[in-house]
Amino acid sequence: MKSIKTVAFIGAGNMGAPMARCVRRGGFDLIICDRSAAVRESFAREGVATTSEVKDCAGADAIIVLLANDAQITDALLGDGGLVHAIPSGHQPIVCMMSTTLPATLRTLEAPLAVAGAHLLDAPVSGGVVGAQEGTLTIMVGGAVSDAELARPLMQAMGSRIFHCGALGSAQVAKIINNMVCVANIYLTAEAIELAQAHGVSLESFAPILDVSTGRNFLTANAALGRAQFRAWSPTEDAYPDIHRIVAKDLHLALALSEQAGIAPGLLKPVSSYVDNHGPNEATRWTSAGRTPQSG
User: Fold this and answer.
1) Please, where are the H alpha helices in the chain?
2) What is the number of other CB atoms lying within 10 angstroms of the CB of residue 268?
3) Where on the tree of life does the source sit, at the highest rank (predicted)?
4) Considering only CA atoms, which of 134, 137, 103, 135 is closest in space to residue 121?
5) Are residues 118 and 95 in contact, defined by beta-carbon separation less than 8 angstroms?
6) Is 144 exposed, middle or buried (0-12, 13-18, 19+ CB in 10 A)?
7) What pLDDT is stored for residue 91 in this prediction?
8) Does domain 173-290 have CATH number 1.10.1040.10?
9) How far out from the chain centre does Cα 14 lie?
10) Is 175 labeled as catalytic in the residue annotation?
């Protein structure tokens, strides 16, 4: 394959949909595969080819996987009607695992995909929904250098910072550890915003102070952007459970990495326990953090 022209997305949810639109704006032909009729209809109205069947993605030059968990990933790629059974003879697509998963999961996928002719990259992202919408994601890539370079123009359509981390699975390690720090920051920052506002100090007032002090993090570097991130994750309290499931899973993956390395988790364990047990009650706090004081 000389270059990537056709890109299929398996999964076009909160992150996948804006990423797919960035890919289309980048000049690639697009195929959207999603179980949601509403998602498919949204893209179909824009003139994009859509399907609910993974096998319809098998002829694409690059296939981006953005699914919620290992069960969905394994079923989509290896299950009955999965991708490996549909790749045309002689075709060698690049499968970009942009979901967050464990390196061990990638190893179970690598050989069956290779037998079918596909090359596997892991390419998880950071930057949240706002970064996905703006095409400014940080993308971590693991896998063969030649595959990573072939996929670079595609990655640049979605992200402004591309890092090749090493062998297959290395990008997932980087992403999981990033998320371990990120999730702790998100929950603590939401609490900090509530505490400050209870004392009459808005995020807009104290974010510039944190930005030049030791409390700086990605949510306080810019108050407007920080609130936009909270709004994107939890625009209403009813939407919060979806993001809660994702961040809880991310911490479980970090715990699994610790266990595999034989490292006893310290602060990670109580943070994960807090998110598991108290996280479901944080909807009001997250939703409030996304609103400026004027918006009520």
Assistant:
1) 16-25, 37-44, 70-78, 103-115, 128-134, 145-158, 170-198, 203-211, 223-233, 240-261, 268-277, 283-289
2) 20
3) Bacteria
4) 103
5) yes
6) middle
7) 97
8) yes
9) 9
10) yes
For 233-242, what is the mean pLDDT?
93
Distances (CA, A) of 114 to 111, 118, 282: 5, 5, 43
pLDDT digits over 8-64, tens only? 999 999 999 999 999 999 999 999 999 999 999 999 999 999 999 999 999 999 999
Q: Return d(Cα 283, Cα 142) in angstroms, integer.
A: 34
Quickly list DSSP for 104-148.
Answer: HHHHHHHHHHHHTT-EEEE--EESHHHHHHHT-EEEEEES-HHHH
Tens of pLDDT, residues 167-195: 999 999 999 999 999 999 999 999 999 99
State pLDDT tens for residues 217-231.
999 999 999 999 999
pLDDT of residue 293: 79
Closest by CA to 95, choosing from 140, 148, 157, is 148
Residue ranges covered by each domain of the chain: 6-167, 173-290
Give the right CATH number for 6-167 from 3.40.50.720, 3.10.20.90, 2.60.40.10, 3.40.50.2300: 3.40.50.720
pLDDT at 120 over 60: yes
- List the structure tokens of 121: 């990259």
Write the DSSP symbol of residue 15.
T
Which of 2, 5, 55, 175 is catalytic? The answer is 175
Q: What residue type is 122 in one-letter code?
A: D
How many angstroms separate the CA atoms of 32 and 270, rounded? 39
Cα–Cα separations (whole angstroms), residue 202 to 58, 188, 199, 288: 50, 16, 9, 12
